[in-house]
Each structure stands twice: as C-alpha cells, then as structure tokens.
Amino acid sequence: MTVEQDKIFSKPLDQIGDFRFDDTVASVFPDMISRSIPGYGEILQTLSKLARKAVTADSQVYDLGCSLGAATLAMRRGIRETGVKIIAVDNSEAMINRAQSHLQAYVSDVPVELVCADIRDVAIEHASMVVLNFTLQFLAPEDRDRLVTKVYRGMCPGGLLVVSEKLVFAQPQTHRLMDDLHLDFKRANGYSELEISQKRTALENVMRPDTLEQHQARFAKAGFRESSLWFQCYNFASMVAIK
C-alpha cells in the first residue's frame, strides 16, 4: 500500500483553521503520524504484546479514536483467545472509510466492528482491553474524567486500559527541553519550519495535552487499582491502567 506524503502545511496559508481529521488528513495520516510522533512504531508493536497478555476469551476490545485502525490491527495480531471482538470507533467518516480498506487487507479470525460515532456516546461493555491512542487530548478537558470513568465501569476485572498521549510538563525548563527535542525530531523527518509553525497553529485550539500527574490522578479517581507509565520519548508517552 503506497503511503502518501504529508504536505498539508507545506505552502503558506492565508488563513489557518482548526485541525480536522478530514479526508485530506486521512489520506496522509500514516506518513504524518510516523514523522510527528517519536516512538509511534514501538507503541504499536507493544500494543500487540499487551493484547496477547491482557485480552481474555469471550470479551470485547475497544479502540477509541481508531483513525485508520493501526492500533486495532496491532491488537488483532496479538489476540490468541477465542470469542473476542474488537470495536473500533472514530467520529471521522473519512478515517472510518479508509480504516475499512486497511483492515480488509489483513486476514484474521478476530472480527472488527467499525463504528462512526463520538467515543463519548459509545457504551463500553465486557471489555478486557481498551485503547485510547492519542485520542484523549482532543476531547474537551471536562469530558476526559467522564470517559475514563465510563471505560472503567465497562471493563472486566483485571482489564487493561492503554492511554497514549502528548504530555505537558509543569516545570517550564523541562517543558521547553522536551518540546525542542520533539521539534528537532520533526525537522529530522523532513518537516520545514513553515510546516511546523502552521500545523502548531492549527492544533492550538483542538489539542490540549495533560501532565503525567493529571493522567495518573484521573486513573485513580476512576477506580483503577494500578497505573504506570510504560513508554516515554520526549513529550510523548504511553500509560497502562489496570482495573
């Protein structure tokens, strides 16, 4: 499958609107993600390993904010139990349509139900594993606690929640250092200063990251008995929480 290169912000724009997961973004999303998120491939590989350990027979697995289904595919490769169904949800019709073709390219005994809906409206039931892969940061801050609590209530005992996010840091020098390292990562992957600047402007109003401490407090408030950071590269991280 040919991956189209991300050139969305490569030319000066008279007006920069809020970032949207529309068909233009969906068409270049794999390239955009791989060049923008350090450690993204490692996170996907580990999702497969986590699914092998966490998913139980006759349960459901949720990929909330599934975009093109990369996390869904990773988990499906790792699942060995029977009677498991993955429910992959995204509110972008463009993403869901492309996810369908991506999923059809790989043969598996694990069925996937693709749902075009707001993840805040989807019921979580009998879940042994739930993934929010760079999704929570796009929700309004007041909705994040409610969603994580809903996930907790819909999980089986021992169920695993995986949350991957961009982080902010309370210490200003640390924040600047991690931000600079991320910008260098994007430059090294071929993004120009214009592209970096215009995309940052587009994301300002739609992506509001939390600190690691905010995530940990949210897991505890929802009822998760344990949580831990398992991966971090610069200001990008992935966490696990266990019911």
UniProtKB/TrEMBL annotation:
Q: Keywords, A to Z?
A: S-adenosyl-L-methionine, Transferase
Catalysed conversion reaction: prephenate + S-adenosyl-L-methionine = carboxy-S-adenosyl-L-methionine + 3-phenylpyruvate + H2O
Q: Which residues form a coiled coil?
A: none
Query: What EC number(s) is this enzyme filed under?
Result: 2.1.3.-
Record: residues binding S-adenosyl-L-methionine: Y40, G65, C66, S67, D90, N91, D118, I119, N133, R200
List the Pfam families: Methyltransf_25 (PF13649)
- Entry's SUPFAM superfamilies? S-adenosyl-L-methionine-dependent methyltransferases
Q: What class of enzyme is it?
A: transferase
Residue intervals of the Methyltransferase domain: 61-159
Q: Which family does it belong to?
A: Belongs to the class I-like SAM-binding methyltransferase superfamily. Cx-SAM synthase family.
Entry function? Catalyzes the conversion of S-adenosyl-L-methionine (SAM) to carboxy-S-adenosyl-L-methionine (Cx-SAM).
Subunit architecture: Homodimer.
Q: Which HAMAP family match?
A: Cx_SAM_synthase
State the name under which the record lists this protein: Carboxy-S-adenosyl-L-methionine synthase
Organism this protein belongs to: Ferrimonas gelatinilytica
Provide the gene name from the record: cmoA
